[in-house]
Structure prediction request, 434 residues.
Amino acid sequence: MCRDDNPTHGPTLTRREALAGAGMVAAAGAVGVTLLADPAPVWANPVRPVADDLDVYVIVTDGMRPDELNPAQAPTLHRWASEGTRFTDASSVMIAETLPNHAAMVTGVLPARNGVPANAIWDHAIGDERTLDRPDDLRAATVLDRIRTEAGLTTASVLSKDYLHGLFGGRASVQWAPFPLVPVTDHSLDWFTVEALKQTITDHAPRMTFVNLGDMDRFGHMDLSGTSLRLARNQAVYNSDHKLWDLEQFVRSTGRWERSVLIVLADHGMDWSEPLRLISAAGAIDADPALRGRVGIAQNGGADTFAHLGPAGEREATLARLREVVGALPGVNRLYDPAELDLGERGGDLVATCHPGWRFSDPTPFSNPIPGNHGHEVTLGIPFFIAGGHRIVRRGQVVDRPVRTLDVAPTVARLFGLDHSGMDGRPALEAFHL
Ligand SMILES: [Zn+2]
Prediction:
């Protein structure tokens, strides 16, 4: 089932089919593991020779802050980092949200080129805000499809969040549809995600696997009160770390550790706002006669993007007024021309970010009740290290050169012998004996 007859493409599934498949397997007694298709055929003559003893795992600890990579909260991750190469100056790309940074990781190009500047955009075609969760929203090649088609190797995506699974649909040879989903958060708990990853490794032996673990982010967002907020978050970090210890035991016990390169990073950090420190730009826009009905808003937690909806000839005047009105709101930190951030046309016409400890809530003050947020500058810092048992990984090294989520794809491309000269990121070669 669910096969694509075209050998150059991965299995293409509708969301409904994928979820139905997940349900069937789970009902049969498995742990939410979904096997969506057979591995891609290994081509007889790959474009470039590739080492046959290398399995790469890109593991995203969603929303983890750099200061959480410590031996008390994350003993496994901290040990991996200490035994490999740790980058101390790592950051997300703006907007510091989940979808744009996962897109940056596997395309290696900036949002203006991959089409994903934010989680939510103003979509002029439908006249509304929407999440970028469709396969055709991603407009650039990824290492998941390039390794499959250019090197003829099996790739896999094991992504805990439903919208990530949507955006990267059809890219990898093998795709796990997150299941079961937690209501409201639309993500699968890390326990299920790592079990699915182990099953995917057992059944398909992918050479490059893209993994998202959503618990840290989701528990960072969900908690609603002071002390319990931090306790639950800390517990989420510890639990996720423990599940990665379990993964390590699996990889070691099946003889795969010496084949493994682990590229571990977060997509963005996390900031917490106080209950009343919220910015609702829509109210101020509606109250201004020059702006009312002329601006669409896409809310992205710590950032809002604004799209001009009025007549083209009035764009400059409207944007000038919008800058005055939004810039004067308490809690607003910076205003950007989306071109400054390489966001492309989907980034709208103006971007506003908030100060630490604030959040945007649009269109109403009740639209965003959650205190945990990211998207703004204070959430750009991320943990980032390269580890694993493969002999090419450099041990016990700390690198201070700045790296970004954008650098993952060129690093992976380099390991598999693919051309990365057209990417905006650059490979993190310091981590390897190559
Ligand atoms: Zn995220």
About this structure: The radius of gyration is 21 Å. The domain at 278-369 is CATH 3.30.1360 (Gyrase A; domain 2). The pocket of zinc ion is lined by residues 62-63, 98, 217, 267-268 (CB under 6 Å). Residues 226-253 form the longest helix (28 residues).
